[in-house]
UniProtKB/TrEMBL annotation:
Protein name per its UniProtKB record: DUF4235 domain-containing protein
Residues annotated as transmembrane: 57-75
N-terminal signal peptide: 1-27
Region (Disordered), start-end ranges: 87-109
One Pfam family per UniProt: DUF4235
Keywords for the protein's UniProt record, in alphabetical order: Membrane, Signal, Transmembrane, Transmembrane helix
Organism: Nocardioides astragali
InterPro entries, per database record: DUF4235 (IPR025329)
Length: 109
């Protein structure tokens, strides 16, 4: 039988994944609509296609990658906040990650 901590961790993983996928889908839909409004044409289906202009391919890759990445991160943070409020602690995957700069190793010359 799985412990409560393990089942909570699995729940968080599934919840976080669903939230991130949903956020990415919404971000992509919004980006597609915005791209059409701004350029008057559909976004490139495959920016790697040589028939797509380089500037257009780079702009699409940069915008879509950034927006979808940020949407996924925000959804994952929201899922973590919900988990923490529900259980009283962060999910095991997000326990303190040693980002304290004062504890970082000194740079070597």
């Amino acid at each position: 039988m799985a412990s409560k901590n393990t089942s909570n961790s699995k729940f968080y993983s599934a919840f976080s994944l669903v939230a991130a996928l949903g956020a990415a889908a919404l971000a992509k839909k919004g980006l597609n609509t915005t791209w059409r409004a701004a350029t008057g044409k559909n976004p490139p289906a495959n920016p790697a296609d040589p028939d797509v202009g380089l500037a257009e391919a780079v702009m699409w890759a940069a915008l879509s990658g950034t927006l979808i990445g940020v949407a996924r991160m925000l959804a994952a943070r929201r899922a973590a906040t919900y988990y923490a409020k529900s259980t009283g602690h962060l999910p095991p995957q997000l326990q303190k990650d040693d980002q304290d700069a004062s504890k970082a190793p000194a740079p070597t010359a």
